[in-house]
Amino acid sequence: MELTLLWTIALRELREALRNKWLAFYAVGFAALAYALSQASVASSGYSGLGGFGRTAASLINALLLFVPLLGLSVGAGALAGDRERGTLLYLLAQPVNRAEVFFGKAIGSGMAVTAALAVGFGLAALTLASASEGDAFTYLALAGYTVLLALASMGLGFIISALTRKGATAMGASLLLWLGLVFFGDIGLVGATLTLRPTPTVLLGMLLINPLQVFKLGAIYSLRATLDTLGAAGQFALYKFGDALPALLLGLLAGWIALSFGAAFALFSRRGDL
């Protein structure tokens, strides 16, 4: 791959993504949500023993579990399918570039756009917390880092959908169904499997860690230096089994999801036609 061509395609994709009304909607919505949560948490911190940062972080984790996968899946699902439907993908591939440069250029550009959208929300929340002298900067950056990894993993799944579909509307519909499966049916299915199969702690932990959202939840709670008791037996067993190596394991799992999803998407993109 030629890096100059890769970067040129990435910048083109970044410009296209930033002009996307849905990405702008997500960015504004997340920024407003993060700012409102930080304001409310800081304002109420004087009425209880919990600090504003702890309240903000806990509220953000719950919001991020719903928002970030939807953002990543939506951007990824439209990256290839939208261009294929408009005919611009075929035109781009007719230029003196190879498929790897097109795919990874679009992936890098989309990733930069998603990261920028998240940075706006985290930046506003950080300004509010800094003005109130709340929280630890390293802990807050760790939460932001886990969030970016979750967004990229979700975007990789969206790229798989985009590589398999011909129309943008179909890709968006499939991404919404997958989002529902990951966010809602993932938890319900885990509870159902636990009640029905009565798995051992090791099997239960494995079932938990195959869902990138659950991996993010474990990592985010651990990064806040909070107890994993809130996640029940699985969280306690994870801390007991891996100890101080747990953060590295969780980061490795999220990185593995990113590599696996984008690798599968590239394989599909390389093997199928462009019409």
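The above is record 1. Record 2 follows with the same two-line structure.
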Amino acid sequence: MQISLMLDILVAVLLVVTIGYAVVLNKRLSSLRKDKDELARLAQGFVETTAKAEVGIGELRSMTEILQERIGRAESLRDDLVFLMERGNSTADRLEGVVRDARDQTGAPSASAVTKPSAPAVTKPSAPKPSSRPSPESMADETSKTREPLTADPAERPAPDDVSEAERELLKALRTAG
């Protein structure tokens, strides 16, 4: 009996150890299952993030193409503007030469020799006539008689009071352009 009792005790001890080991193994398996679910959620999040990144990369590529197109257009516009500025400068130089030649041929005094023109005397008509308004051509003739055109040399330029608004705008645009 002793042998059967010892064998029964040995089997009971082994069963207790096996049950303890099964409990520990069950805890580890449940934490592994929990980690597996978390890993599956993490993998799903990674897939979604990857899909969003691919969409973002596609959008970046399309934006890059659009920006390249706009840069190309801007460069061509810049080239056109440079061409127009060069052409405008050469035209202004030629125009200045023509004005100087015309001034030299007519024997008009240079702008440095011209003093500030005096204002023409204004006389009041005795009875205003509706049809006596001056024509724009005659007004332009009178204006050209009282003033010299602008010159490129700052010493030869007329006083700022003698410069019309249009001439000031033109000078401002030319200074800005070049």
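The mean pLDDT is 77.
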